[in-house]
Every structure is written in structure tokens, then in C-alpha cells.
Amino acid sequence: MLFIFYKMPYNIEQDYTASTLNGDTIEIKIKVKGYRNFFKPTSFKGKMSIDNQAYDVFEPNRTDSLITKIEKKQNGEIYFPIITNQNRTESDDFYVIQWTDHKFNKLYFIHAKTNFRYLAPAKNASTANQILEEIQHYLK
Predict the structure, then answer these.
(1) Residue 18 in contact with residue 107, Cβ under 8 Å?
(2) 66 φ, ψ (degrees, to nearest 5)
């Protein structure tokens, strides 16, 4: 019974402002599901709105071996998703998540088209820099 409960997806809903290290801001709404697994890190799928534009949040295809997946799971890693525009006509209009926690309480991501780096929740450059300092040890 514990196995079934563990495997059930969990819902994540977040609304906040994200800021670059220079103070440029965007509004974000996240509605995703986290998928736990015994043999691989937690992954995420769902929807995200960035400045009122809809995006898909999904896990890209991974080529990790089963042993690598299990090692990453044991180390507490998660699979960071890709955020891409829903119509997928502009191949470079996507965001890459560099780090988040299991509930998306804090988020660090890069817009591929502009190379802007956003941190959330942050309404200004000062808070964005503070979050970056807090999570620096997670970044590889």
C-alpha cells in the first residue's frame, strides 16, 4: 500500500514574480504534477504561464541507465523539466530550469532566446541575488 501512495503524483500550484539579476521581472503561474518513482528522480509535467503566455512543462527524454537513475534518486536529485511554448513553432522560445525544489517554492531558470536568468520568487534584483546565493551550492 505504501508503494501505491508513494507513486501517486502530487500537485504544485505557484504564482509569483521572477526577477533577473538586473531587476527585469516577469509574472509566473505554475500548475504541474510531480511524479515520484522508486527507480529514478522525481519528474514534472504540466502548464506554466509566463507573462500571460502559455507554456508546457515536461521532462525531456533521458538516456540515463537504470543504475545512473537509481544513483541520482539516492542522492536526492530531481529531473528538471523544460518549459516550452505550446505551439512549438519557435524552437528557441523555451526556458531551461537550472534548479528548483520539489514544490517549486524557489526557481532558477534561463530563457534560451535571450539568455536572461530568472530567479523566483523575486520582485527585484536584490532578492534575485539573495536567492542565487542561497541555492549556489546546489548548482553544478
Answers:
(1) yes
(2) -60, -40
